Structures are given as C-alpha cells and as structure tokens.
C-alpha cells in the first residue's frame, strides 16, 4: 500500500488542481490523488469509481 500523503489540503484550496495531464490519453491527475477522465468519469484514491455523467443526447446542441 502506498504511504503517499497529499500535499494539497482542502482548507488551502477550494478545489483540487491538476498536477499531471495526459490529454492524448484522456485523463488528468489531481493533487488529491483522484484521476479525472475526459468522459467525466473519476477514479478516486481509495479505488471507488464515479461513472461518467453525460448529458442525454436529446439535450445536446447541434451546430448547423
């Protein structure tokens, strides 16, 4: 098990910030250890997964 301690505390910053980004792979690493995917899904440091939360197709605006 990794003994990493996040250097970014919630009290110091209102929201975690990006510390590494791999746009070609579709993900970013946040200072709190979370991985955020371009499809809006997340992988949290404790292993929990937040499924992508996309807008329904009928609500998307289509450019002409």
UniProtKB/TrEMBL annotation:
It comes from the Bacteria. It holds the Pfam family DUF5999. This is DUF5999 family protein. The lineage of its organism: Bacteria, Bacillati, Actinomycetota, Actinomycetes, Kitasatosporales.
């Amino acid at each position: 098990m990794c003994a990493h301690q996040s250097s970014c505390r919630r009290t110091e910053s209102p929201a975690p910030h990006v510390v590494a980004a791999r746009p070609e792979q579709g993900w970013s690493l946040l200072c709190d250890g979370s991985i955020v995917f371009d499809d809006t899904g997340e992988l949290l440091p404790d292993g929990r997964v937040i499924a992508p939360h996309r807008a329904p197709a009928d609500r998307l605006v289509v450019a002409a």
